[in-house]
Protein backbone atom coordinates (compact mmCIF):
# COMPACT_ATOMS: atom_id res chain seq x y z
CA UNK A 1 0.00 0.00 0.00
CA UNK A 2 1.27 3.47 -0.89
CA UNK A 3 2.14 5.49 2.20
CA UNK A 4 0.73 9.00 2.78
CA UNK A 5 4.31 10.26 2.75
CA UNK A 6 4.82 8.90 -0.78
CA UNK A 7 1.53 10.42 -1.95
CA UNK A 8 2.56 13.79 -0.58
CA UNK A 9 6.03 13.52 -2.14
CA UNK A 10 4.80 12.67 -5.62
CA UNK A 11 2.05 15.29 -5.42
CA UNK A 12 4.86 17.84 -5.33
CA UNK A 13 7.11 15.92 -7.74
CA UNK A 14 4.77 15.02 -10.61
CA UNK A 15 7.64 14.59 -13.06
CA UNK A 16 8.96 11.66 -11.04
CA UNK A 17 5.49 10.17 -10.82
CA UNK A 18 5.16 10.47 -14.58
CA UNK A 19 8.52 8.72 -15.06
CA UNK A 20 7.41 5.82 -12.88
CA UNK A 21 4.17 5.45 -14.83
CA UNK A 22 5.96 5.71 -18.17
CA UNK A 23 8.53 3.07 -17.24
CA UNK A 24 5.89 0.72 -15.89
CA UNK A 25 3.49 1.08 -18.81
CA UNK A 26 5.60 1.89 -21.84
CA UNK A 27 8.92 0.16 -21.27
CA UNK A 28 9.43 -2.71 -23.68
CA UNK A 29 12.44 -4.96 -23.03
CA UNK A 30 14.82 -5.29 -25.95
CA UNK A 31 14.74 -9.05 -25.40
CA UNK A 32 12.34 -11.13 -23.33
CA UNK A 33 13.21 -14.45 -21.78
CA UNK A 34 11.15 -17.41 -22.95
CA UNK A 35 10.62 -19.37 -19.74
CA UNK A 36 8.97 -22.25 -21.57
CA UNK A 37 12.36 -23.25 -22.97
CA UNK A 38 14.10 -23.28 -19.59
CA UNK A 39 14.76 -26.47 -17.68
CA UNK A 40 13.63 -26.65 -14.06
CA UNK A 41 17.26 -26.42 -13.05
CA UNK A 42 17.79 -23.21 -15.04
CA UNK A 43 14.57 -21.74 -13.66
CA UNK A 44 15.99 -22.28 -10.19
CA UNK A 45 19.11 -20.37 -11.22
CA UNK A 46 17.00 -17.45 -12.39
CA UNK A 47 15.15 -17.62 -9.08
CA UNK A 48 18.45 -17.23 -7.24
CA UNK A 49 19.36 -14.33 -9.52
CA UNK A 50 16.28 -12.37 -8.46
CA UNK A 51 16.74 -13.47 -4.85
CA UNK A 52 20.36 -12.38 -4.49
CA UNK A 53 20.61 -9.35 -6.76
CA UNK A 54 19.36 -6.02 -5.50
CA UNK A 55 19.96 -4.08 -8.68
CA UNK A 56 21.28 -6.18 -11.55
CA UNK A 57 18.57 -8.82 -11.92
CA UNK A 58 16.23 -6.63 -13.98
CA UNK A 59 18.87 -5.56 -16.51
CA UNK A 60 20.36 -9.05 -16.75
CA UNK A 61 16.94 -10.51 -17.57
CA UNK A 62 16.68 -8.23 -20.62
CA UNK A 63 20.05 -9.19 -22.09
CA UNK A 64 20.52 -10.66 -25.55
CA UNK A 65 19.67 -14.41 -25.52
CA UNK A 66 23.28 -15.22 -26.35
CA UNK A 67 24.43 -13.63 -23.10
CA UNK A 68 21.48 -14.11 -20.77
CA UNK A 69 22.50 -17.46 -19.30
CA UNK A 70 26.30 -16.89 -19.29
CA UNK A 71 25.97 -13.55 -17.48
CA UNK A 72 23.41 -14.98 -15.04
CA UNK A 73 25.70 -17.88 -14.13
CA UNK A 74 28.72 -15.56 -13.98
CA UNK A 75 26.84 -13.43 -11.47
CA UNK A 76 25.71 -16.42 -9.38
CA UNK A 77 29.19 -17.96 -9.28
CA UNK A 78 30.73 -14.72 -8.06
CA UNK A 79 27.86 -14.24 -5.62
CA UNK A 80 28.51 -17.70 -4.21
CA UNK A 81 32.21 -16.92 -3.90
CA UNK A 82 31.43 -13.62 -2.17
CA UNK A 83 28.94 -15.29 0.19
CA UNK A 84 31.64 -17.64 1.46
CA UNK A 85 34.24 -14.86 1.70
CA UNK A 86 31.87 -12.52 3.51
CA UNK A 87 30.74 -15.04 6.14
CA UNK A 88 32.69 -14.37 9.32
CA UNK A 89 31.38 -17.57 10.93
CA UNK A 90 33.57 -19.69 8.63
CA UNK A 91 37.09 -20.22 10.04
CA UNK A 92 39.89 -18.84 7.88
CA UNK A 93 41.59 -22.22 7.62
CA UNK A 94 38.46 -23.59 5.96
CA UNK A 95 37.57 -20.51 3.97
CA UNK A 96 40.92 -19.81 2.30
CA UNK A 97 41.31 -23.10 0.39
CA UNK A 98 37.73 -22.83 -0.91
CA UNK A 99 38.32 -19.29 -2.16
CA UNK A 100 41.56 -20.22 -3.89
CA UNK A 101 40.12 -23.35 -5.48
CA UNK A 102 36.69 -22.03 -6.41
CA UNK A 103 37.54 -21.95 -10.13
CA UNK A 104 38.00 -25.72 -9.95
CA UNK A 105 35.02 -26.26 -7.67
CA UNK A 106 32.65 -24.90 -10.33
CA UNK A 107 33.63 -27.89 -12.47
CA UNK A 108 32.73 -30.46 -9.79
CA UNK A 109 29.36 -32.13 -10.28
CA UNK A 110 27.11 -32.05 -7.23
CA UNK A 111 29.26 -29.68 -5.13
CA UNK A 112 27.47 -27.47 -2.65
CA UNK A 113 28.27 -25.70 0.60
CA UNK A 114 26.11 -25.97 3.70
CA UNK A 115 28.38 -24.45 6.34
CA UNK A 116 27.38 -20.80 6.05
CA UNK A 117 26.02 -19.20 9.18
CA UNK A 118 22.22 -19.33 9.57
CA UNK A 119 21.96 -15.56 9.19
CA UNK A 120 23.86 -15.38 5.90
CA UNK A 121 21.28 -13.94 3.52
CA UNK A 122 22.48 -15.83 0.42
CA UNK A 123 23.06 -19.11 2.23
CA UNK A 124 20.52 -21.03 0.13
CA UNK A 125 22.43 -20.27 -3.06
CA UNK A 126 25.44 -22.12 -1.66
CA UNK A 127 23.25 -24.96 -0.41
CA UNK A 128 21.94 -25.49 -3.95
CA UNK A 129 25.11 -24.50 -5.76
CA UNK A 130 25.15 -27.83 -7.60
CA UNK A 131 22.37 -26.44 -9.81
CA UNK A 132 24.57 -23.52 -10.84
CA UNK A 133 27.44 -25.89 -11.61
CA UNK A 134 25.19 -28.10 -13.73
CA UNK A 135 24.14 -25.15 -15.90
CA UNK A 136 27.66 -23.74 -16.01
CA UNK A 137 28.93 -26.95 -17.58
CA UNK A 138 26.46 -26.55 -20.46
CA UNK A 139 27.96 -23.20 -21.54
CA UNK A 140 30.21 -22.77 -24.53
CA UNK A 141 33.85 -23.55 -23.68
CA UNK A 142 34.90 -19.96 -24.41
CA UNK A 143 32.41 -18.59 -21.88
CA UNK A 144 33.41 -21.16 -19.28
CA UNK A 145 37.07 -20.28 -19.71
CA UNK A 146 36.40 -16.57 -19.17
CA UNK A 147 34.25 -17.15 -16.08
CA UNK A 148 36.73 -19.62 -14.57
CA UNK A 149 39.65 -17.22 -15.12
CA UNK A 150 37.90 -14.30 -13.41
CA UNK A 151 36.74 -16.58 -10.59
CA UNK A 152 40.30 -17.79 -10.01
CA UNK A 153 41.75 -14.29 -9.83
CA UNK A 154 38.95 -12.95 -7.67
CA UNK A 155 39.11 -15.92 -5.30
CA UNK A 156 42.84 -15.48 -4.80
CA UNK A 157 42.39 -11.76 -4.22
CA UNK A 158 39.68 -12.39 -1.64
CA UNK A 159 41.87 -14.98 0.08
CA UNK A 160 44.74 -12.50 0.25
CA UNK A 161 42.51 -9.93 1.96
CA UNK A 162 41.05 -12.56 4.29
CA UNK A 163 44.63 -13.37 5.33
CA UNK A 164 45.51 -9.73 5.85
CA UNK A 165 45.24 -9.24 9.60
CA UNK A 166 45.74 -5.46 9.31
CA UNK A 167 42.89 -5.19 6.81
CA UNK A 168 40.60 -7.18 9.07
CA UNK A 169 41.52 -5.02 12.06
CA UNK A 170 41.68 -1.45 10.73
CA UNK A 171 40.25 -1.74 7.21
CA UNK A 172 41.84 -0.39 4.04
CA UNK A 173 45.01 1.57 4.62
CA UNK A 174 46.02 3.46 1.46
CA UNK A 175 44.17 4.67 -1.63
CA UNK A 176 46.22 2.17 -3.61
CA UNK A 177 44.98 -0.64 -1.35
CA UNK A 178 41.44 0.68 -1.72
CA UNK A 179 41.61 0.58 -5.50
CA UNK A 180 43.20 -2.86 -5.40
CA UNK A 181 40.33 -4.11 -3.26
CA UNK A 182 37.83 -2.57 -5.69
CA UNK A 183 39.75 -4.24 -8.52
CA UNK A 184 39.27 -7.68 -7.02
CA UNK A 185 35.58 -7.28 -6.22
CA UNK A 186 34.48 -5.13 -9.18
CA UNK A 187 37.23 -4.35 -11.68
CA UNK A 188 37.61 -8.04 -12.51
CA UNK A 189 33.86 -8.24 -13.06
CA UNK A 190 34.14 -5.44 -15.61
CA UNK A 191 36.89 -7.33 -17.39
CA UNK A 192 34.97 -10.60 -17.38
CA UNK A 193 31.80 -9.02 -18.73
CA UNK A 194 33.74 -7.23 -21.46
CA UNK A 195 35.33 -10.47 -22.56
CA UNK A 196 31.90 -12.12 -22.66
CA UNK A 197 30.48 -9.22 -24.70
CA UNK A 198 33.31 -9.38 -27.21
CA UNK A 199 33.17 -13.17 -27.42
CA UNK A 200 29.46 -12.91 -28.23
CA UNK A 201 30.20 -10.31 -30.92
CA UNK A 202 28.18 -7.64 -29.12
CA UNK A 203 31.00 -5.23 -28.27
CA UNK A 204 33.98 -3.76 -30.06
CA UNK A 205 37.04 -5.99 -29.65
CA UNK A 206 39.12 -2.82 -29.24
CA UNK A 207 37.78 -2.59 -25.68
CA UNK A 208 40.03 -5.50 -24.75
CA UNK A 209 43.02 -3.33 -25.65
CA UNK A 210 41.85 -0.65 -23.20
CA UNK A 211 41.92 -2.44 -19.83
CA UNK A 212 41.67 0.85 -17.97
CA UNK A 213 38.18 1.38 -19.40
CA UNK A 214 36.70 -1.92 -18.25
CA UNK A 215 38.49 -1.48 -14.93
CA UNK A 216 36.86 1.92 -14.48
CA UNK A 217 33.40 0.51 -15.19
CA UNK A 218 33.68 -1.76 -12.16
CA UNK A 219 35.67 0.64 -10.00
CA UNK A 220 33.17 3.48 -10.46
CA UNK A 221 30.21 1.39 -9.30
CA UNK A 222 32.07 -0.14 -6.38
CA UNK A 223 33.53 3.14 -5.16
CA UNK A 224 30.11 4.80 -5.28
CA UNK A 225 28.64 1.94 -3.24
CA UNK A 226 31.43 2.12 -0.67
CA UNK A 227 31.04 5.89 -0.36
CA UNK A 228 27.27 5.64 0.06
CA UNK A 229 27.28 2.67 2.45
CA UNK A 230 29.67 4.04 5.07
CA UNK A 231 27.07 3.97 7.88
CA UNK A 232 25.86 0.49 6.97
CA UNK A 233 29.44 -0.80 6.85
CA UNK A 234 30.24 0.79 10.21
CA UNK A 235 27.23 -0.96 11.74
CA UNK A 236 28.59 -4.24 10.34
CA UNK A 237 32.04 -3.44 11.76
CA UNK A 238 33.59 -3.01 8.31
CA UNK A 239 35.74 -0.15 7.04
CA UNK A 240 36.44 0.44 3.38
CA UNK A 241 37.22 4.16 3.35
CA UNK A 242 41.03 4.26 3.14
CA UNK A 243 42.87 5.52 6.19
CA UNK A 244 45.02 7.65 3.89
CA UNK A 245 41.92 9.77 3.23
CA UNK A 246 40.01 9.86 6.52
CA UNK A 247 43.13 10.39 8.64
CA UNK A 248 43.56 13.82 7.00
CA UNK A 249 40.37 14.94 8.72
CA UNK A 250 39.97 13.00 11.99
CA UNK A 251 42.12 10.95 14.35
CA UNK A 252 39.80 7.95 14.53
CA UNK A 253 37.47 6.60 11.88
CA UNK A 254 34.54 6.71 14.32
CA UNK A 255 35.08 10.45 14.78
CA UNK A 256 33.55 11.02 11.34
CA UNK A 257 30.18 10.21 12.87
CA UNK A 258 30.38 12.74 15.70
CA UNK A 259 28.18 15.83 15.13
CA UNK A 260 30.98 18.18 16.16
CA UNK A 261 33.04 16.88 13.22
CA UNK A 262 30.33 17.43 10.63
CA UNK A 263 32.37 19.69 8.34
CA UNK A 264 35.40 17.42 8.58
CA UNK A 265 33.23 14.46 7.67
CA UNK A 266 31.83 16.30 4.65
CA UNK A 267 35.33 17.21 3.49
CA UNK A 268 36.35 13.58 3.86
CA UNK A 269 33.34 12.35 1.90
CA UNK A 270 34.04 14.85 -0.87
CA UNK A 271 37.50 13.32 -1.31
CA UNK A 272 35.93 9.87 -1.57
CA UNK A 273 33.52 11.21 -4.17
CA UNK A 274 36.39 12.87 -6.02
CA UNK A 275 38.20 9.51 -6.15
CA UNK A 276 35.15 7.91 -7.75
CA UNK A 277 34.59 10.79 -10.17
CA UNK A 278 38.04 10.32 -11.69
CA UNK A 279 36.60 7.19 -13.34
CA UNK A 280 33.51 8.83 -14.85
CA UNK A 281 34.87 9.83 -18.26
CA UNK A 282 36.35 6.36 -18.78
CA UNK A 283 32.88 4.88 -18.27
CA UNK A 284 31.45 7.02 -21.06
CA UNK A 285 34.35 6.09 -23.32
CA UNK A 286 33.64 2.41 -22.63
CA UNK A 287 29.93 2.72 -23.44
CA UNK A 288 30.84 4.02 -26.88
CA UNK A 289 32.31 0.61 -27.69
CA UNK A 290 29.11 -1.40 -27.18
CA UNK A 291 27.28 -2.59 -30.27
CA UNK A 292 24.01 -4.05 -29.04
CA UNK A 293 21.16 -2.22 -27.31
CA UNK A 294 20.50 -4.64 -24.45
CA UNK A 295 24.22 -4.77 -23.62
CA UNK A 296 24.32 -0.98 -23.72
CA UNK A 297 21.33 -0.77 -21.36
CA UNK A 298 22.90 -3.35 -19.05
CA UNK A 299 26.05 -1.25 -18.72
CA UNK A 300 24.61 2.27 -18.92
CA UNK A 301 21.79 2.05 -16.36
CA UNK A 302 24.03 1.24 -13.36
CA UNK A 303 26.47 3.98 -14.39
CA UNK A 304 23.83 6.72 -14.54
CA UNK A 305 22.42 5.49 -11.23
CA UNK A 306 25.94 5.79 -9.81
CA UNK A 307 26.50 9.39 -10.92
CA UNK A 308 23.06 10.30 -9.55
CA UNK A 309 23.93 8.61 -6.25
CA UNK A 310 27.17 10.59 -6.04
CA UNK A 311 25.15 13.75 -6.44
CA UNK A 312 22.78 12.63 -3.67
CA UNK A 313 25.74 11.92 -1.36
CA UNK A 314 27.81 14.99 -2.17
CA UNK A 315 27.90 17.51 0.68
CA UNK A 316 25.16 15.48 2.38
CA UNK A 317 25.81 14.59 6.01
CA UNK A 318 22.95 12.08 5.91
CA UNK A 319 25.35 9.44 4.61
CA UNK A 320 26.88 9.34 8.10
CA UNK A 321 23.47 8.75 9.66
CA UNK A 322 21.60 6.53 7.21
CA UNK A 323 21.71 4.89 3.80
CA UNK A 324 21.15 7.56 1.15
CA UNK A 325 19.35 6.51 -2.03
CA UNK A 326 17.89 8.21 -5.06
CA UNK A 327 14.10 8.10 -5.26
CA UNK A 328 12.21 5.52 -7.30
CA UNK A 329 10.90 8.24 -9.57
CA UNK A 330 14.39 9.53 -10.26
CA UNK A 331 15.59 5.97 -10.86
CA UNK A 332 12.82 5.38 -13.41
CA UNK A 333 13.70 8.60 -15.22
CA UNK A 334 17.33 7.50 -15.35
CA UNK A 335 16.37 4.10 -16.73
CA UNK A 336 14.29 5.74 -19.44
CA UNK A 337 17.17 8.00 -20.46
CA UNK A 338 19.84 5.31 -20.14
CA UNK A 339 18.12 2.75 -22.33
CA UNK A 340 18.25 4.76 -25.54
CA UNK A 341 21.63 6.00 -26.74
CA UNK A 342 25.02 7.30 -25.66
CA UNK A 343 24.13 10.94 -26.18
CA UNK A 344 21.32 10.79 -23.64
CA UNK A 345 23.59 9.00 -21.18
CA UNK A 346 26.15 11.76 -21.67
CA UNK A 347 23.41 14.30 -21.03
CA UNK A 348 22.68 12.56 -17.72
CA UNK A 349 26.35 12.64 -16.71
CA UNK A 350 26.57 16.28 -17.71
CA UNK A 351 23.42 17.18 -15.77
CA UNK A 352 24.59 15.55 -12.56
CA UNK A 353 28.13 16.85 -12.98
CA UNK A 354 26.69 20.35 -13.07
CA UNK A 355 24.57 19.65 -9.98
CA UNK A 356 27.65 18.47 -8.11
CA UNK A 357 29.58 21.53 -9.30
CA UNK A 358 26.87 23.82 -7.90
CA UNK A 359 27.21 22.21 -4.48
CA UNK A 360 31.01 22.22 -4.54
CA UNK A 361 32.19 24.22 -1.54
CA UNK A 362 35.11 26.63 -2.15
CA UNK A 363 36.19 26.06 1.45
CA UNK A 364 36.47 22.33 0.85
CA UNK A 365 40.14 21.29 0.45
CA UNK A 366 39.04 19.15 -2.50
CA UNK A 367 37.22 21.99 -4.26
CA UNK A 368 39.78 22.50 -7.01
CA UNK A 369 40.33 18.79 -7.68
CA UNK A 370 36.60 18.16 -7.94
CA UNK A 371 36.11 21.16 -10.22
CA UNK A 372 38.88 20.00 -12.56
CA UNK A 373 37.53 16.44 -12.65
CA UNK A 374 33.99 17.58 -13.40
CA UNK A 375 35.37 19.87 -16.10
CA UNK A 376 37.19 16.92 -17.63
CA UNK A 377 33.96 14.92 -17.76
CA UNK A 378 32.14 17.76 -19.52
CA UNK A 379 35.08 18.29 -21.85
CA UNK A 380 35.00 14.62 -22.86
CA UNK A 381 31.26 14.83 -23.54
CA UNK A 382 31.81 17.97 -25.56
CA UNK A 383 34.45 16.20 -27.64
CA UNK A 384 32.02 13.52 -28.83
CA UNK A 385 28.79 15.53 -28.82
CA UNK A 386 29.71 19.18 -29.46
CA UNK A 387 27.11 21.66 -28.27
CA UNK A 388 28.30 24.56 -30.45
CA UNK A 389 25.62 25.74 -32.84
CA UNK A 390 25.75 28.19 -35.74
CA UNK A 391 24.47 31.71 -35.05
CA UNK A 392 20.70 31.77 -35.01
CA UNK A 393 18.97 33.99 -37.53
CA UNK A 394 15.98 35.23 -35.56
CA UNK A 395 14.27 36.40 -38.75
CA UNK A 396 14.42 33.01 -40.39
CA UNK A 397 10.94 31.49 -40.82
CA UNK A 398 12.30 28.12 -39.75
CA UNK A 399 13.55 29.52 -36.45
CA UNK A 400 10.31 31.40 -35.85
CA UNK A 401 8.43 28.17 -36.45
CA UNK A 402 10.72 26.25 -34.08
CA UNK A 403 10.32 28.89 -31.39
CA UNK A 404 6.55 28.75 -31.73
CA UNK A 405 6.64 24.97 -31.57
CA UNK A 406 8.81 25.04 -28.44
CA UNK A 407 6.48 27.55 -26.83
CA UNK A 408 3.48 25.37 -27.60
CA UNK A 409 5.23 22.30 -26.21
CA UNK A 410 6.14 24.12 -22.99
CA UNK A 411 2.51 25.21 -22.64
CA UNK A 412 1.27 21.64 -23.09
CA UNK A 413 3.79 20.29 -20.58
CA UNK A 414 2.66 22.89 -18.06
CA UNK A 415 -0.95 21.77 -18.37
CA UNK A 416 0.09 18.12 -18.21
CA UNK A 417 1.55 18.80 -14.79
CA UNK A 418 -1.54 20.72 -13.69
CA UNK A 419 -3.83 17.89 -14.82
CA UNK A 420 -1.69 15.31 -13.04
CA UNK A 421 -1.68 17.31 -9.79
CA UNK A 422 -5.44 17.81 -10.08
CA UNK A 423 -5.93 14.08 -10.63
CA UNK A 424 -3.97 13.32 -7.45
CA UNK A 425 -6.01 15.82 -5.42
CA UNK A 426 -9.33 14.55 -6.82
CA UNK A 427 -8.32 10.95 -6.11
CA UNK A 428 -7.52 11.80 -2.50
CA UNK A 429 -10.84 13.66 -2.13
CA UNK A 430 -12.83 10.78 -3.64
CA UNK A 431 -11.16 8.23 -1.37
CA UNK A 432 -11.70 10.44 1.69
CA UNK A 433 -15.34 11.06 0.81
CA UNK A 434 -15.91 7.35 0.25
CA UNK A 435 -14.42 6.48 3.62
CA UNK A 436 -16.59 9.09 5.37
CA UNK A 437 -19.66 7.81 3.52
CA UNK A 438 -18.97 4.21 4.51
CA UNK A 439 -18.46 5.28 8.12
CA UNK A 440 -21.79 7.17 8.07
CA UNK A 441 -23.62 4.17 6.61
CA UNK A 442 -22.10 2.01 9.33
CA UNK A 443 -23.65 4.26 11.96
CA UNK A 444 -20.90 6.72 12.80
CA UNK A 445 -22.24 9.74 14.74
CA UNK A 446 -20.55 12.79 13.31
CA UNK A 447 -22.72 15.14 15.40
CA UNK A 448 -21.22 13.72 18.60
CA UNK A 449 -17.73 13.88 17.10
CA UNK A 450 -18.33 17.50 16.13
CA UNK A 451 -19.52 18.46 19.62
CA UNK A 452 -16.54 16.68 21.22
CA UNK A 453 -14.16 18.49 18.90
CA UNK A 454 -15.88 21.78 19.67
CA UNK A 455 -15.62 21.09 23.40
CA UNK A 456 -11.90 20.29 23.16
CA UNK A 457 -11.22 23.43 21.16
CA UNK A 458 -13.24 25.39 23.70
CA UNK A 459 -11.23 23.88 26.53
CA UNK A 460 -8.04 25.02 24.86
CA UNK A 461 -9.47 28.52 24.48
CA UNK A 462 -10.89 28.55 28.02
CA UNK A 463 -14.56 28.61 27.04
CA UNK A 464 -15.54 24.94 27.20
CA UNK A 465 -19.04 23.70 27.99
CA UNK A 466 -18.35 20.47 29.88
CA UNK A 467 -21.89 19.17 29.58
CA UNK A 468 -22.22 19.67 25.83
CA UNK A 469 -21.47 16.09 24.84
CA UNK A 470 -23.69 14.67 27.57
CA UNK A 471 -26.52 16.88 26.37
CA UNK A 472 -26.20 15.57 22.85
CA UNK A 473 -26.13 12.01 24.12
CA UNK A 474 -29.31 12.59 26.22
CA UNK A 475 -31.10 14.10 23.24
CA UNK A 476 -29.96 11.18 21.11
CA UNK A 477 -31.20 8.64 23.62
CA UNK A 478 -34.60 10.35 23.89
CA UNK A 479 -34.94 10.48 20.13
CA UNK A 480 -34.18 6.79 19.94
CA UNK A 481 -36.86 6.04 22.54
Mean pLDDT: 87
Classify the helix fraction into a percent range: 55-70%
- Strand content bin: under 5%
Distinct helical segment count:
24
Class by helix and strand content? mainly alpha
Q: Quick one: how many beta strands?
A: 0
Rg over CA atoms = 28 Å
Distance N to C terminus:
44 Å
Helix and strand run:
HHHHHHHHHHHHHHHHHHHHHHHH
- Which overall shape is indicated by the principal axes computed on the Cα atoms? globular
Low-confidence blocks of residues? 394-398
**What composes the largest sheet?**
none
Catalytic activity: 2 (2E,6E)-farnesyl diphosphate + NADPH + H(+) = squalene + 2 diphosphate + NADP(+); 2 (2E,6E)-farnesyl diphosphate + NADH + H(+) = squalene + 2 diphosphate + NAD(+)
EC number: 2.5.1.21
Enzyme class: transferase
Subcellular location: Membrane
List the helices and strands and how they pair.
Blueprint: H1 4-12, H2 14-26, H3 40-52, H4 57-60, H5 65-86, H6 92-100, H7 102-105, H8 123-127, H9 129-136, H10 141-163, H11 165-170, H12 175-199, H13 211-228, H14 230-235, H15 243-246, H16 262-277, H17 280-287, H18 293-313, H19 328-338, H20 342-359, H21 367-384, H22 397-441, H23 446-461, H24 468-480
Helix pairs in contact: 2-19, 3-5, 3-9, 5-9, 5-10, 6-10, 10-12, 12-13, 13-16, 13-17, 13-18, 16-21, 18-19, 18-20, 20-21, 23-24
